[in-house]
From TrEMBL, chains A, B:
This is Maleylacetoacetate isomerase. It comes from the Bacteria. Keywords: Isomerase. It comes from Paraburkholderia phytofirmans OLGA172. InterPro entries: Glutathione-S-Trfase_C-like, Glutathione-S-Trfase_C_sf, Glutathione_S-Trfase, Glutathione_S-Trfase_N, GST_Zeta, GST_Zeta_C, GST_Zeta_N, Thioredoxin-like_sf.
Amino acid sequence: MKLYNYFRSSSSYRVRIACNLKGLQYEYLPIHLNRNGGEQFSEEFLSLNPQALVPVLDDGESRVSQSLAILEYLEETHPQTPLLPYASKDRAAVRELSQYIACEMHPLNNLRVLKFLTGTLGLDETQKQTWITHWLRTGLTALERQLSTSPTRGAFCFSDRPTIADCCFVPQAFNARRFGVDIAEYPTLATIERNCEALDAFRDAHPSRQPDTE
Amino acid sequence: MKLYNYFRSSSSYRVRIACNLKGLQYEYLPIHLNRNGGEQFSEEFLSLNPQALVPVLDDGESRVSQSLAILEYLEETHPQTPLLPYASKDRAAVRELSQYIACEMHPLNNLRVLKFLTGTLGLDETQKQTWITHWLRTGLTALERQLSTSPTRGAFCFSDRPTIADCCFVPQAFNARRFGVDIAEYPTLATIERNCEALDAFRDAHPSRQPDTE
């Protein structure tokens, strides 16, 4: 199994966690999102993924991009250590949290968006930080509100076992800290993050421990 | 089944299409995203969905938010007229397209983001349009590149039957047109849109035909 990814990419980080939780080995193929104008735009990479994004998983059978599509694919093809609960109602709860992070939080603060705001639109550093902080706080506040009152929360986002929601949450918490927002202000989220970080699967997937870490 | 939604919301539109394709009746409960500072921020609505977003589906058994979580939930609980293919490899292909639209395109041009850019960050109308057009063209170009070379494309995004990828694509095409980007410039996408629009399920879900249409 090959995983085209980038150490700091939040969506790559999600897939690394899931592979570790499921005990799946993979070959790490680094794609540098900044060097040479972005290696994801090379002809070679575009033929792998026309979306010009990491991560991409290639297991010899399929080539899949989009982290949540990859997580669902891994769940179907490697059901050991399930990352989704059994009942549809519970699966929906986990997917709802995952999609919130993937659709409402992460897309607003990723590299290409910040580059466009400061480059083409000419936002200064203060405006950029206002933008980043606003979306992080909006998202973390909603997640805290949802998880602090959730009857199905356990040590993790859902129950006492990690799910794809935790695979999405931990990279988002890492991003928040990197951009100066302290997760400790959100007590439920801080506890879940601590519980995740206690597991090797999460620790080994951290951006500071990858072959292309700078 | 109750669907809290808003006529112009792209993610609400996705769920309406899926319900129509599956022949599911629902009670339409309009939540006005602009009126009274946004009805999604009311205490009453927050108790339904702490994420303060539409759509929300309530079938008496579960209350689910996030359109893609809802589509997966409907697929599991009402498997008739499947909106995902059978094989994991194929399901991954459909989810990959859906996630691209839901995570890389839609979040950048939705109402709350545009309001923040022009409000708090003070972008003028020209800058706003530059932002909108850039992300629409980036996204549509990638989708056209992917679908025009896809061996699994048929009359629809995947094969000759509509899937959740089409449920995501058609509302995005509607959005593009609304913001002045002509889908006709993307021949593969234009054909798929035409094929979808030929079906009642898509036509009846259109923002111009809802109880709260203005």
